[in-house]
Amino acid sequence: MTDRYAVFGNPVSHSKSPHIHMAFARQTGQDISYEAIEAPVGGLKEAVCEFAEAGGKGFNITVPFKLDALALATSRSRHAELAGATNCIKVEGEQILAENFDGVGIVRDIEINHGFTIAGRKVLLVGAGGASRGAILPILEAGPETLAIVNRTAAKALDLKAAFAPFADIAASGYDDLAAEHFDLVINATSASLHGNMPPLAPDVFAKGCLAYDMMYGKGMTPFLQLARGSGAAALVDGVGMLVEQAAEAFAWWRGVRPDTAPVIADLTVPLT
Ligand code: ATR
Fold first, then answer.
1. Which residues, including other chains, have CB under 8 Å from residue 202's CB and lie 6 or more apart?
2. How far is the centre of ligand 1, averaged over its atoms, from the C-alpha of 125 (Å)?
3. pLDDT in tens, 108-155
4. Core-most of 38, 76, 123, 199, by most CB within 10 Å?
């Protein structure tokens, strides 16, 4: 029997998740369906109950439901708990298990697909919203020498510093107070690139030969990546690999089979020109 999966969002028609998961299913011979479901804002619970009662086995969650979905869960992984959000749910009878694979996805993309080892490196996370929060624990688990967070609203960076204090001493500041330091890995986790904007970063945050990563995907050379290129970054990466890697984590969790991400990333990659 075909097992049913979905992504919930609003809007959701732009989501690449059905395409990615169906590509994984073909590749691994798994008999699944995967649909995009637009739930009304404030109506996630009803939509999820209907899906689960109809035999739905699991689902992804995208904007604006990642926090609401965490509240529905009967059990939360450490990554979901610390991210304060979930992007992946497994339904097991009455149990709703919440995970968050966004951060694991970016770390796998950086380390495996781009061959960049985070251990011992100086890392700068730009932004202090949900995307940044979800990446912190997986980055810390990869063993950087230091992690700094910079955000337009400094108080939000300081909140993250406090939330993750049991794990590491993260530096947190606004852009004006960012220590004059060069970073080996600079990750743009702001939503600025969505609007073609640029976080007000000084060019010298990029160490010569560093990797610059924009979590945004499919936007080509964002202002952030352009600044990085002009400042000596050796590798420029957008978030397509993160998107596919988090999906692969979800697929492996649901189905017990790990798909090959490379062909799916290649299929979705928009050249950085
Ligand atoms: P997400 O879940 O995608 O992280 P979010 O929680 O709304 O979305 O966070 C957006 C992040 O992008 C925040 O860090 C925001 O900075 P503020 O906390 O100061 O609002 C950052 N951001 C958005 N537009 C920006 C811009 N033009 N310049 C700098 N930072 C920006």
1. 175, 178
2. 12
3. 999 999 999 999 999 999 999 999 999 999 999 999 999 999 999 999
4. 123
Q: Which CATH superfamily is domain 3-100 in?
A: Leucine Dehydrogenase, chain A, domain 1 (3.40.50.10860)
Q: Do domains 3-100 and 103-240 have the same CATH topology?
A: yes
Active site residues: 66
Bridge partners, residue 147, by sequence: 123
Residue whose Cα lies nearest atom 9 of ligand 1: it is 129
Question: Is residue 183 within 8 Å of residue 149, measured between CB atoms?
Answer: no
Residue nearest to atom 22 of ligand 1 (CA): 190
Q: Where are the domains of the chain?
A: 3-100, 103-240
| Ligand 1 atom with minimal separation from the 128 CA | 14
| 236-259 residue pLDDT tens | 999 999 999 999 999 999 999 999
195 burial via Cβ count (<10 Å: 0-12, 13-18, 19+): exposed
Q: Which residues contact 164 (CB under 8 A, 6 or more apart)?
A: 82, 136, 137, 140, 170
* CATH class given for the domain over 103-240: alpha beta
Quote the ligand 1 centre to 108 CA distance (angstroms): 23
What whole-number distance in Å separates Cα of residue 152 and Cα of residue 63?
21
Kindly report the protein residue whose alpha carbon is nearest to atom 28 of ligand 1.
199
